[in-house]
């Protein structure tokens, strides 16, 4: 039986807790397929599993997103066949993506159209489906609306910015450097605020003639929470999509009333792709935009699987832009 490789971890902590190990991948059980990975996605959410922010049983695998070719199908699998290219993303049900091959439930897989490569799919399935539900399910956007997009040069940020322009929105992005600001502008941000030396809320008020934005997409968390609230217009929506700087501090909901009867939500991708029909609809729209070139996926970092520790270091030190993948 062919020996494969995987990243596993036995305790939570820094990137160094991850181990590059030999694994044996057997035959698929009922409802499963054996998938040979071509590329694996690297997501900030992976660090939450590794450091214990997301608590899971240990020992465990790492990663929730990958794309590849089906090698074998188990009993009862009728929607997929050997040789088909597929992608997947999820949460607990797809842990173990940092591997050369694996067994996985067929019902989490999404078929890839010919125009989308496995590398592109691994770089965008989680980020792209996230952008898809943020743009199409969270808020009833109308042309002329304005959004504030934190981490605008990140993997999700670059896709959201491009999608927002397709909807006719004004996009105010934030980044930590002038180099990242240039990337964000090249992908659709109308204005970019460098939060390392500019006051975000004050600058947003200037750019919106004192009104504020309709929606804030905040993946940073603790460091940006208050400035995000202060950037919203009356009855605006705060969307907490991540906590890269740490968890949001406890707050009294009266704060939302005092700042303009604001709304706040903390969505998770899993709840927007739980329904197979909705997942396929979100994926179809994403694939269509990417295949047509309306949305470009930037793969700016490529790693080998054995270099997962360095990949996590780069991600957490905010050295990365766009999407990062492991090439198998």
From TrEMBL:
GO terms for cellular component: cytosol. It holds the Pfam family ADH_N. Residues 13-326 form the Enoyl reductase (ER) domain. SMART domains: PKS_ER (SM00829). It catalyses: 2 a quinone + NADPH + H(+) = 2 a 1,4-benzosemiquinone + NADP(+). Its EC number is 1.6.5.5. It comes from the Bacteria. InterPro entries: ADH-like_C (IPR013149), ADH-like_N (IPR013154), ER (IPR020843), GroES-like_sf (IPR011032), NAD(P)-bd_dom_sf (IPR036291), QOR-like (IPR047618), Quin_OxRdtase/zeta-crystal_CS (IPR002364). Gene3D superfamilies: Medium-chain alcohol dehydrogenases, catalytic domain, NAD(P)-binding Rossmann-like Domain. SUPFAM superfamilies: GroES-like, NAD(P)-binding Rossmann-fold domains. Keywords: NADP, Oxidoreductase. Coiled coil: none annotated. Transmembrane segments: none annotated. GO terms for molecular function: mRNA 3'-UTR AU-rich region binding; NADPH binding; quinone reductase (NADPH) activity; zinc ion binding. PANTHER family: QUINONE OXIDOREDUCTASE PIG3-RELATED (PTHR48106), QUINONE OXIDOREDUCTASE-RELATED (PTHR48106:SF13). Belongs to the zinc-containing alcohol dehydrogenase family. Quinone oxidoreductase subfamily. This is NADPH:quinone reductase. The lineage of its organism: Bacteria, Pseudomonadati, Pseudomonadota, Gammaproteobacteria, Moraxellales.
